[in-house]
Amino acid sequence: MALEPLDIQATFSDGLASRQVRGQVEVAEARGVVEDLQLIPSNPKITPEANEAIKSADWITIGPGSWLSSVMPHFLHRDQARVIQSSKAKKILIFNLPDKNIRDEYYGKTLEEHLKLLLQHAPNFNFDYALIDTSLTDSENGFYELVEKSGGQVLARDLKDSQQTYRHNKEKLVSAFSHILS
């Protein structure tokens, strides 16, 4: 991703006070409203390999993963975000599964809130598909509208693993990708 070591820093608010945390684990475990999210250093050089791989890709998949500390860094890294945005590749955003037992740093946020945060940092990001689990479709009208404004379409599929419902089932993902690629 970058030619130098990176760290992630975020400021969270609980409504009364703000606190700044730094580090992947610290950001992943923090709670509250995200007021600020950034990489340290703020503008690292993209690796030539990452740059070339993104430029030559036919498809770019983003996610699933811890939203703030795994997905967002690709859009906080300005050069990489620019390369992703300008790529002619088809782009698929894969959204996390809901799970009451997993409380990562963006737990409890709607799909729309996830996408708004991404677009706040990469306002010109257009993508082709938003892949979500069918359990997330009930009250997400704003999400559907935001996806459409970003040039994409929502694909809702049963993606959960039957044994570990917080994980995507590999075969179900392959099936969803087969549908998208055909």
From TrEMBL:
For this protein, the record's PANTHER family field holds:
GLUCONEOGENESIS FACTOR-RELATED, UNCHARACTERIZED PROTEIN YVCK-RELATED
InterPro entries reported in the protein's UniProt record: CofD (IPR002882), CofD-like_dom_sf (IPR038136), Gluconeogen_factor (IPR010119)
Keyword Heme appears in the UniProt entry:
no
Q: Name one GO molecular function term.
A: LPPG:FO 2-phospho-L-lactate transferase activity
Its protein name is Unannotated protein
Species in which this protein is naturally found: freshwater metagenome
Instruction: Show the Pfam families listed in the entry.
Output: CofD
User: Any idea which UniProt keywords this protein has?
Assistant: Cytoplasm
Q: Does the keyword Cytoplasm apply?
A: yes
> Where would you find the membrane-spanning parts of this chain?
none
